[in-house]
Specification:
- The protein contains eight helices and 15 strands.
- With about 350 residues, the chain is α+β, with helices and mostly antiparallel strands.
- A four-stranded mixed β-sheet has the order 10-11-15-14. Strands 1-9-8 form a three-stranded mixed β-sheet. The chain has a two-stranded antiparallel ribbon with strand order 2-7.
- The protein is flat.
Length: about 350
């Protein structure tokens, strides 16, 4: 009886031959969901197609095997001594397709343990002036925090904490089952100690043995110089407290920079529009302009046209984090002063006569 010719692995996963590793993995997960026998209980061919899919992924996810297959096909793999067996790491990919990260423990590769705390988001407002040198803000927010009465261990002070007999202190219950993939180990949190491996004989009165309580927290946030509107500051570990043994979440502080009518910001540079009388634009003059360091005198060149500008070097903002300092500017951008030439709308008789004389000479 003739041996069936294996299908092209790229065809099995429905990907192009030039597909990236990410595309191959994504395609495999889609196929795994679609073909898994536990899902397709009425399809008698599902098991074989599922194995075919796992075999294709085993080859195409390995750069060396994939290169051999691309050059010599199925025979090249067999002559090199390779036989499909679907490594344990690939089984984990299959189950992640169903359960996601942190799902059932497959052959001990699952992500198990105490739940981490969730992240918290809040916001602060700062002025453009404060962006120049940086500032501090105290933020207050609701958060799950460690119970101060029991210091987070869940036991009433002075009472014992006992190792769980059901899970032997591991916090997990494991169940071994047989499947088409071989031996599968599923791990779940112990239902007696809730995955902690131990429990308080006398639960804390303030937190009911959870070790955590809801309440208000405050945090001093350092806002760095140069920060831009909408940027977020991450404070590791300042979020909600997780289960005992789990890492706390993070605090994300969104910084909102209040608009300053004197300036338009473009990265580290500032733009200031100032009005200049038409005569000053024609003859030249000196005017005062606002900067973040106070008023500065700026020379208006004779013959200035509307929209002309001058640059005040180093009068802008610093780069956030002090990256790539600007030479000779103290690490700050520039301020560009744009001249808006103002033509008077009404003239008295004497002014009009002077303007007409000027017009005649021009």
């Amino acid at each position: 009886m003739a041996t069936a010719v294996p299908r092209d692995y790229y065809e099995v996963l429905d990907v192009q031959r030039g597909a990236t590793e990410v595309e191959i993995k994504k395609a495999f997960r889609v196929k795994a969901r679609e073909l898994h026998p536990d899902v397709n209980t009425e399809d008698h061919d599902a098991e074989e197609r599922f194995k075919e899919c796992a075999e294709a992924y085993e080859v195409l996810s390995d750069p060396e095997r994939r290169q051999t297959y691309d050059r010599f096909g199925h025979e090249g793999l067999r002559s090199g001594g390779w036989a499909p067996h679907a490594a344990a790491g690939n089984f984990q990919d299959i189950f992640e397709a169903f359960f996601g990260q942190g799902g059932p423990d497959i052959f001990g590769f699952g992500q198990q343990g105490p739940a981490s705390g969730a992240d918290i988001g809040t916001a602060v407002e700062v002025t453009l002036q404060e962006v120049l040198h940086g500032t501090e803000r105290e933020v207050a927010f609701d958060a799950v925090k460690t119970c101060e009465h029991c210091n987070g261990n869940g036991a009433e002070p002075g009472t014992p904490i006992t190792t769980c007999d059901r899970c032997g202190g591991s916090g997990q219950l494991r169940q071994v089952t047989q499947s088409i993939l071989g031996q599968v180990v599923r791990a779940s949190a112990c239902d007696v100690c809730n995955g902690q491996g131990k429990f308080a004989e006398t639960p804390c009165e303030d937190c009911d043995g959870l070790g955590r309580v809801a309440g208000k927290r405050t945090w001093e946030v350092n806002v760095p110089p140069g920060i831009e509107d909408g940027q977020r500051i991450r404070i590791t570990g300042a979020g909600h407290v997780g289960e005992p043994g789990g890492r706390p979440g993070d605090l994300y502080v969104e910084v909102r920079v209040e608009p300053d009518p004197r300036f338009e910001r473009q990265g580290t540079n500032l733009i200031t529009a100032v009005e200049v009388p038409a005569t000053a634009a024609m003859l030249g003059d000196e005017i005062e302009v606002p900067t973040l360091d106070g008023a500065k005198t700026v020379r208006v060149p004779a013959g200035t046209q509307p929209g002309d500008s001058v640059r005040l070097k180093g009068e802008g903002l610093p780069q956030v984090g002090g990256r790539a300092p600007l030479r000779g500017t103290g690490g700050r951008g520039d301020q560009h002063v744009v001249f808006q030439v103002v033509v008077p709308k009404k003239l008295n008789r004497k002014q009009r006569e002077a303007a007409e004389q000027l017009h005649d000479t021009l």
